[in-house]
């Protein structure tokens, strides 16, 4: 995903400067994505990635961080933690059960 100088999103086959976004956690724990390259010229306000009620992409210079259009719910990733194997978890039909006597 990339944002051009007009604030429009597009897909890019290669990573460019327009593909860089700052991820910010808002006070309500939603996540915002702001263009790392483009801002409003006069105010310096960031351009945010946003979707309207129908799910269409909005122009970055029209999206404000306080509006629901810019709020995304983060998806938690389940991380598999390494754990030492235990003999209590080995089924009795395993080759290890032959040595248990």
What does the model show?
- The chain has strands spanning 2-3, 9-10, 21-25, 31-39, 46-48.
- With 101 residues, the chain is mostly beta strands.
- The chain has a single domain (1-100), classed as Trefoil (Acidic Fibroblast Growth Factor, subunit A).
- It is elongated and about 70 Å long.
For this entry, give a set of tags.
101 residues; two-stranded antiparallel sheet; 21% strand; 3-stranded antiparallel beta sheet; Trefoil (Acidic Fibroblast Growth Factor, subunit A); mainly beta; 5 strands; IL1/FGF; 0% helix
Mean pLDDT: 84
Q: In angstroms, what is the radius of gyration?
A: 24 Å
Helix fraction bin: under 10%
**Which architecture name does CATH use?**
Trefoil
Q: Outline the low-pLDDT stretches.
A: none
Structural class, from helix and strand content? mainly beta
Separation of the first and last Cα atoms = 61 Å
Report the major sheet. Answer: 3 strands, antiparallel
CATH-defined topology: Trefoil (Acidic Fibroblast Growth Factor, subunit A)
Number of helices: 0
- General form: elongated
User: What's the number of domains?
Assistant: 1
What's the order of the H and E elements?
Answer: EEEEE
Strand order of the largest sheet: 3-4-5
Which CATH class is shown? Mainly Beta
The total beta strand count reads 5
How much of the residues is beta strand, in percent?
15-25%
């Amino acid at each position: 995903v990339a944002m051009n100088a007009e604030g429009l999103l597009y897909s890019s086959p290669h990573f460019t400067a327009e593909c860089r976004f700052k991820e910010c956690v808002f006070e309500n724990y939603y996540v915002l994505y702001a263009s790392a390259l483009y801002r409003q010229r006069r105010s310096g306000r960031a351009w945010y990635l946003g979707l309207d009620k129908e799910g269409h992409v909005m122009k970055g210079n029209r999206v404000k961080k306080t509006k629901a259009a810019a709020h995304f719910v983060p998806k938690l990733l389940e991380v598999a933690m390494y754990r030492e194997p235990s003999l209590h978890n080995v089924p009795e039909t395993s080759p290890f059960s032959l040595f248990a006597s």
